Amino acid sequence: MNYLIKGTLSMIVCCLFLSSCQMSPTSSNNEMSMNVSEKMECKVAIDSITQVGEGPIWDYQYHRLLWIDTQGSLFIYTPQDGKNREIKLDRMIGTVIPYQEDVVLVGLQDGIYEMTLSTGALKFIADPEGREAGNRYNDGKCDSFGRLWIGTMDKDCTPYKAAFFCVEPNGESRKILDSVTISNGVIWSPDGKKMYYHDSPTAQITAFDFNEEDGVILNRKEIITLPDGFGTPDGNAIDEEGMLWVANWGAGCVTRWNPFTGELLQKIEVPALNVSALAFGGEELDQLYITTASLYMPERVAEQYPEAGKLFVVKPGVKGVKCNYWKKGK
Length: 330
Hints:
mainly beta; Neuraminidase; 5-stranded mixed sheet; 3 helices; 25 strands; globular
């Protein structure tokens, strides 16, 4: 109970910090935010409530959606039979990455591990930041060469205390960025030449030129600032047209952006205030799975969102791209 209370208080601090750190929108962003709402119905995919649903990723080789509750659960959802298997963990989890049929990569609060799904056994891979930092691992994804790019965050969201790392398939790691607050939203353009990323409290989306072969990022550029009322950016996804999808924490929606012009293209309402992450899935990659959180809302606000914490799905009218696997799935 003390752990849950402490976690709740910590996240309230995080939410307040996120709110206070949003950048002021430009006039062009305000103009773009008009007339883009889509009256698409988000359907419930899993009719159970998580505390902080996160990290969905479509494992196309095994026809399943991997996703998590950061408070200590890993889920394996198979749409063909409607089953959603839960694996309970003894610590927080920040991300899950497909690898093999019975093995996935997970970023837990204390390190990066390979996890055997049939037994729950963990094999330590790396802890690039080290426990002395006092942070936990958060959002992360693999690039086309099978490297993991993952960031951290402090339990109390202390500003500029966290960092962003790259973990090689052999377990070697290196720090990519420091002075980060809440590392989130790692994704690549369909051609692999751009990497998108954000430090959530800034409310800005960042683009880097990406060298796939060497795993090097260059030429940092802030390409999008979320307008007022769009919350803060949490997880993200890319579609086959190269457009960027963002989960808008605190704003009850997901949004689609042109990363080259900064234009807001689409907005889909979600029946949960805190929208945490999203991923294209299904056999045709034409379904958008959306995770949400039931925690960290004032009581009177929570009453307005009885389905918060559920996993939702919608067909947005565009397809996604296939995910990358840890070690290329080998």
